[in-house]
Structures are given as C-alpha cells and as structure tokens.
Amino acid sequence: MDVRDYFSGQSPFKWVKFVDSAKLPTRWGMFKMYGFTETATGKEHLALVYGELDSATPSLIRLHSECLTGDALFSDRCDCGYQLARAMENIVKEGSGVLFYLRQEGRGIGLINKIRAYHLQDDGADTVEANEALGFSADMRDYSFCIGMLSFLGISRVRLMTNNPRKIESLKQIGINVIERVPLQEGNSPYNSNYLKIKAKKMGHMFDESFIK
C-alpha cells in the first residue's frame, strides 16, 4: 500500500486516477471505455480504446474536448460533432487507436459561459472576441493531465488527429512524441464557415484553403 500510494503521487500518475473500464459498442465498432478522474479538478475524462495498442507503433489518437451542443445536440455552429464522428471512424479503419474525451466544454469556459459567448456571437462578435469580452482567453484548455491517461495506456508516441497546433505543442511539452499530425477537416456549413475562418486566422488552426473558402 505504501509503495502504491507513493507512486500515485508521482508524475505522470499524480495527474489522474483510473476508476474503471467497460465495453462501449458504437455504430463503428466495439470500444473499451476507461474512466479517469483528474486529480486537480475532479473532472471526469474518458479514453475510448479500439483494438490492441502496440507500444512499438505510434497510436492514432484524438484529444476531443467535450462539446455538448455539437456532440450531442447536432449543432452546426461548430465542427466538433463532425470531428468526433470522423475520429472514431478513422480509429476503427486504422484497426486500433484511442479517442480521449476531455471534459473541457467551450474551450474550457464551461457550458453556461459558452451560451453567453454564443449570444455575443449572435450579436456580431466572432468566437475569439466573444470569449475575450467575457474575460477569458480564446482557449482556456489545459492538456497537461493527459500524460496520466497516456501513460496508463502505455502510449508515448502518437499520430495526432487535429488541426490545432496548440495540441501538438501541449503533447510535446509533456513528453509525448507526436510522430505525425493527421488532419481532421469535417463539418463546414453555412452556419460555421466564419467560425472556421476565425480559428484559422486568429488561432492558427491548419485547414486547407479549399475547406474554409
């Protein structure tokens, strides 16, 4: 017990606590769902694992921040729900991989503040201006705790599905080797085309010009 308690307080194990796991059948295939509690905040995060992970091969992964409106309510104000679906499909096609579902709603400002930000956007602000008007930065998310989940699963090298350069740098800073960035361009619609352009212009997201034109 003393040894276990000691290691639970050391990096990377100090960041999260593994709770339990269970099967998760989806429209794409059978995932195994691992539940974690973040030590600093008490937030609950998931790792959805498909197939057998091989430490000798970089794992295809997605760090997906919770978006209730896009993931569950089918909103077209953002591209989140489309990216979630495509990421899970890509992982199954790959044969193995992990989708990390992170409880960081609204780029870290929470659901109610996200609604406030949407109201400001209805009145003409863009996604960055709305956050800043509420006293937040454009992106409040922190990925440092992810090292706990990645280490639990034995992952040190990844192929990361993202358009966001900040996620790449965040993983590198915690010691994860990002072997490849895999673009994830999904869900452009008349309702979010300006949102996507602002992400590219003000936040550096990497999109093909043909996707956001």
TrEMBL record:
Database matches in InterPro entries: GTP_cyclohydro_II, RibA, RibA-like_sf
Keywords from the named record: GTP-binding, Hydrolase, Metal-binding, Nucleotide-binding, Riboflavin biosynthesis, Zinc
UniProt entry tagged with the keyword GTP-binding: yes
One GO cellular component term noted in the UniProt record for this chain: cytosol
Active site, UniProt feature: 139, 141
Chemical reaction(s) catalysed: GTP + 4 H2O = 2,5-diamino-6-hydroxy-4-(5-phosphoribosylamino)-pyrimidine + formate + 2 phosphate + 3 H(+)
Keyword DNA-binding: no
Pathway note: Cofactor biosynthesis; riboflavin biosynthesis; 5-amino-6-(D-ribitylamino)uracil from GTP: step 1/4
Limits of the GTP cyclohydrolase II domain: 21-183
Gene Ontology MF terms in the entry: GTP binding; GTP cyclohydrolase II activity; zinc ion binding
Listed EC numbers: 3.5.4.25
Chain sites annotated for binding GTP: 62-66, 83, 105-107, 127, 162, 167
Any one GO BP annotation for this protein: riboflavin biosynthetic process
Swiss-Prot/TrEMBL cofactor(s): Zn(2+)
Sequence positions that bind Zn(2+): 67, 78, 80
Chain's role: Catalyzes the conversion of GTP to 2,5-diamino-6-ribosylamino-4(3H)-pyrimidinone 5'-phosphate (DARP), formate and pyrophosphate.
Name this polypeptide is given: GTP cyclohydrolase-2
Species this protein is from: Photobacterium aquae
Gene assigned in the entry: ribA
